[in-house]
# Entry
Amino acid sequence: MMAFLLMSTTILAGCSFFGKKVTTTDTVSDTNTATTSTGQVMAEAVKGKYNFGDENCNKYVKLMECLLDKTPDTAKEQTVRSFEKVMDLWNGMEKDALPETCKNTINMLQDQKEVFQKA
# Structure
């Protein structure tokens, strides 16, 4: 989980982590025909799938959804799988422990703000 979070910190720079609205259009075309990678299909499948009763948890989910949009196709499948593993862990946690876990995760990412800005 820590390796995934570390990888996330290097990619999150372009996301709306710090209140910036980001809109993207990702289309890959080959002779005027749009194609979609397996990773992109997987990324689209997880968008909007996870919702928690905690603001920090939902903030992390939105960050990860943004990250999936920014992740290169070569790493997208692995990133989606890692995200889903974290979501499975969070869904299996005791409800009392989840808010603190989400808060700690967001705080850790906030502490990396300078890394995001430089990237």
Summary: The chain has a mean pLDDT of 73. The beta strands are 28-30, 33-35.
